[in-house]
Amino acid sequence: MNVLALLGSPRKGGNSEILADEVLWGAAEAGAGTAKVHLDDLWIRPIAEVMDNRAKREDTRSDDDFPGLLERFLDAQIVVFATPVYWAGVTAQTKCFIDRLSAYAWRPPYAERFKGKGYAVACTFAVKELEHGEWVTKPLQCCVDVLGGRYLGDVCASVYKKGAVREMADALHAARELGAKAVEQMQEPAG
Ligand SMILES: Cc1cc2nc3c(=O)[nH]c(=O)nc-3n(C[C@H](O)[C@H](O)[C@H](O)COP(=O)(O)O)c2cc1C
Predict the structure, then answer these.
(1) Prior bond to 109 cis, omega within 30?
(2) Residues flanking ligand 1, CB < 6 Å
(3) Cβ neighbours, 10 Å, residue 60
(4) CA of 190 relative to ligand 1 center, distance in Å
(5) Is 24 within 8 Å of 80 (Cβ atoms)?
(6) Which tens digits make up the pLDDT trace of 165-190?
């Protein structure tokens, strides 16, 4: 089983990446192969205009780095979206990636490869209330539903300074557990 973390923060070694590393660690302990990608290292443009007919859409901006990453995404059984809350939403890097899926998710031969994929989310933000993470988790749950995937869970941490989540043992533990449980869930039939 392959688990791919898509890191949406431009801050390398930041809090969401640290949580994602723990999720991947838990997944690896449960027997999965793991990899991670910094979206900010890639050239992924916002989506261009697409046709209303979803099965006939074309990606007119496919000369950037998106198609290569799409293959890695489609090959993964579990995708981890790791993103801080930026202005009450996911980061622009994450949003550009998700929007571009719209050019492929209903188009043969790609459409079949989207179905049944598992997703987990690692989310960080500055405000104290843990519910603030819902600015990220709720929209991503919605995306997973639309893509016909399985939402396997999330881990959220209220933390501001770079790397400070390393001191939050509970969040690190929850992230590791999420990774392990995500793999276990994907080994069970959906239901
Ligand atoms: C451009 C920008 C926008 C942000 N917007 C929010 C926000 O809306 N709510 C919030 O609680 N924190 C916000 N933050 C704080 C980050 O979510 C927080 O520092 C987080 O831990 C960063 O994660 P990272 O280290 O993975 O980048 C923002 C930070 C930046 C740089």
Answers:
(1) yes
(2) 9, 11, 14-17, 84-88, 124-127, 132, 159-160, 162
(3) 11
(4) 34
(5) yes
(6) 999 999 999 999 999 999 999 998 77
Q: Which two tokens stand for residue 147?
A: 């893509």
**Rounded-to-10 torsion of CA 179, 185, 186, 191:** -150
Neighbours of 189 (CB within 10 A): 5
CB atoms within 10 A of CB 4: 20
- Provide the whole-model pTM: 0.98
**Amino acid (one-letter) located at 21:** D
Cβ atoms of 86 and 136 within 8 Å: the answer is no
pLDDT digit string (tens) for 58-106? 999 999 999 999 999 999 999 999 999 999 999 999 999 999 999 999 9
| Radius of gyration in angstroms for the set of CA atoms belonging to the chain, rounded to a whole number | 16
State both tokens at 134.
């819902």
Question: Which residue ranges form the domains of the chain, and what is each CATH number?
Answer: 2-187 (3.40.50.360)
- Residue 48 Cα, ligand 1 centroid: separation in angstroms? 27
Q: Can you tell me the distance from the alpha carbon of 37 to that of 8, in angstroms, rounded to the nearest whole number?
A: 9
Alpha helices in 30-168 (DSSP H): 66-75, 92-101, 111-114, 134-146
Tokens matching residue 116: 């049944």
In angstroms, how far apart are the furthest CA atoms of the chain?
49
